[in-house]
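lol forgot to send this yesterday, sorry. struct tokens for the thing we talked abt
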């Protein structure tokens, strides 16, 4: 089940909610119970074999050969 991020237009609270994809657009604020808006989430880069971060083949994610 995906984790979605929301922000409340009434109280500006930001929160996360684990829910099915079919219900991704619907969430109520846990603080004031107003309908909240889903926001775009930033994803962390995936770890690849050898301990480097995906993207450039080195630990910092670039092609600098730091390792």
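and heres what i got for the seq, position by position
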């Amino acid at each position: 089940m995906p984790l979605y991020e929301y922000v409340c237009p009434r109280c500006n609270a930001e929160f996360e909610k684990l829910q099915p994809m079919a219900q991704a657009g619907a969430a109520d604020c846990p603080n004031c119970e107003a309908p909240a808006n889903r926001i775009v989430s930033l994803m962390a880069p995936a770890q690849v074999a050898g301990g480097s971060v995906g993207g450039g083949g080195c630990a910092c994610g670039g092609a600098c050969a730091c390792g």
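The radius of gyration is 17 Å. anyway ping me if u want another try
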